[in-house]
Amino acid sequence: MGWGKYFSRTQYCALLAGIFWLPVIQAQAQNVPDVPGDDIFGFTSPTDIGNPGDKAFGNENDGRFGKRSGSYNALNTKYEFSRTLTESWWIAGSLFGSYNHAFQVPGLDNVNRTAFDGLSFEIEHRILKRSAGNPFAISLSVEPRWGRVDGTAGQMSNFYNATFKLFTDAVVVPDKLFWGANLQFAPQTAQDISMRNHWVDSSSTLASMALTAQLSQKFFLGVEARYLSAFDGAWLNRNIGNAFYFGPTFLWRITDKIVFNATFQPQLFGHASGSPDRNLDLENFERAQYRVKLSVMF
Fold this sequence. Notes:
Layout: H1 9-29, E1 55-65, E2 71-84, E3 89-103, E4 111-128, E5 136-149, E6 156-173, E7 177-191, E8 199-214, E9 219-232, E10 238-253, E11 258-272, E12 288-297
Antiparallel strand pairs: 1-2, 1-12, 2-3, 3-4, 4-5, 5-6, 6-7, 7-8, 8-9, 9-10, 10-11, 11-12
C-alpha cells in the first residue's frame, strides 16, 4: 500500500516540510539561557548591551596602591553615560577624574593631587549572539580617550590612546554559574612629564577571565584572574613588565535599576625588565588593584 492511500499530495508535502523544519522550530522555541547583563565579573565585561532604547549612568572607581617602598595610592573615577541604539550597537560617553598620592616612592616625585582627567567615547557591537547551538556570545568595542594626568606618576601630562576590546561569555550552569573573558590592546602617545614638548609612545595588553555564581536574584559571587603587560612603543615593540592579579568579585542588585559591584585583586606574581630578580612588577604596576562601581538604569 502506498502513502497515497492515506494522504493527499498537499498533505504529504506538508508532512515532509514539517519533518524538515521541526528541528529548527524546536531550536527557536527553546529558551536559550543567557548571561546577566550587569557587571557580574568584576573588571571583566559581559557581552550584553541591553535592549534598544536603554539608557544608563555608571560611576566606576578603579583604585591601585602599593609600590616597592614609600606610600602610593591612585584612583581613577569614570562617569559614564550610555545608550543602547539597537540590538547590536551600544555607545557611551565618559568623563574622568583622578587622585594620585606618592610619598618617598623611588623613581617618583612626591605628589598629592586631585584633577580632571579627560574624556572618552566608546562604541560596542555584538557580533555573535548566543543560540541553542552556540553557547558563546562575542562583542567588540573601541574606546578612544584623551587624558591629562600620567597614570603612574600623577603628574600633568596630556595623552591620547584607544583601547580595542573583545568580550566573550557563556552560561556554565543556567541561572547558577557564568563564565566571561576579555582581551584588550591599547596603544598610547603621551607627553614626557619632564619635557612636555616631547611625546613618548607606549602600549599595553590585558587578558582576563572570570567565573561567577548566582547566589540569589540579588547577589553574585565569583573570582577573576587578569594578566597585564606593558610595552615600549605603540605596537608592543618591547615588553617592559607583566603582572598577574587574582581576587574575588561581588555584585549586588539593589533594585531592578540600581546595581553595585566590587572586586579586590592583589598582584600574585609579575616581572619587570628593570628588576629581573624581583617576584613582582612594582615598577609598571601596583601591589593591589580594586574596583567599586554603581550603575543606574533610566
